[in-house]
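Quick one from the shared queue. A colleague (R.T.) flagged Peptidase as missing a structural entry in our internal table.

Convert sequence to structure tokens.
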Amino acid sequence: MTTAFYPIGTPGQAWGVAEKAQWLARQRVQRSYADDVLARIDALRDRFDVAGYGELDYPSGRYPLLAIRSRGWDDALPVALVTGGVHGYETSGVQGALKFVERHAADYAGRCNLLVAPCVSPWGYERIQRWNALALDPNRNFIAASPAPESAALMALVQPLAGRFLMHVDLHETTDSDESEFRPALAARDGKPFEPDSVPDGFYLCADSLNPQPAFQQAVIAAVAKVTHIAPPDAQGRIIGSPVVAHGVIEYPLKALGLCASITGARYTTTTEVYPDSPRATPEQCDDAQVAAVTGALAYALAHR
């Protein structure tokens, strides 16, 4: 007999319509996208351009999708993309993206065009949830004809700029709730067994295995190490099941997995992972680590165009 490890569904059977509806009914609004994100974006309109790139239309409500752009956009300059909140529950990705714009984005005027989408998944942000309202993970659905509207909208935003991106940093977290809630939910949804793993204590990066750019990744790690600690490998030399290829760095095939960091084809791409549940890091440190990752990435990318 297979033991149930999640309160929805039958072990060994993928969810159907009824199970997804049961899951959706459990989700509750816990914070405000309008107050936490849209208000801060509005406060930036005197210094940056703000572009709407779509709207989520779920039965529970509508969510405008906004991106922040450099004022005085110059087509002769390279483009750098920063994304946060692809997983809505990963708070420092959203807050770090906004903090970067508020404190540092103006420094890059005349050097590059910045495009920042600070909260890709606002429905998930409000519910502190990894998935969207369709029980889909946006960060596995950056694919052609994406069924995830959050992913499809972001891809449509960047498509007109194809071939012009120098850098893309996608801001994420790895949390204790990955093991207690989100990975068990994933296994249950797909009718697969849940195999527990450990949560790394510290910051790390996911590079593209087809375009790893190791010197770039280490430049980002060095910048973040000034703010917070870098995750060590486990006893098997791995982080979340992947071999550590350099200090604080693992690799994924980004495009094959439908991950956000694959959407630009930029020379320099990385996915950050902050551990907000560490006793060694405060929420402010986590936000600052994301900011340091972006500024460190930009410094390297602009110096090695």
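The first strand starts at residue 49 and ends at 58.
The beta strands are 49-58, 61-69, 79-84, 113-117, 165-173, 204-208, 238-239, 242-243, 249-252, 268-274.
Added to the table.
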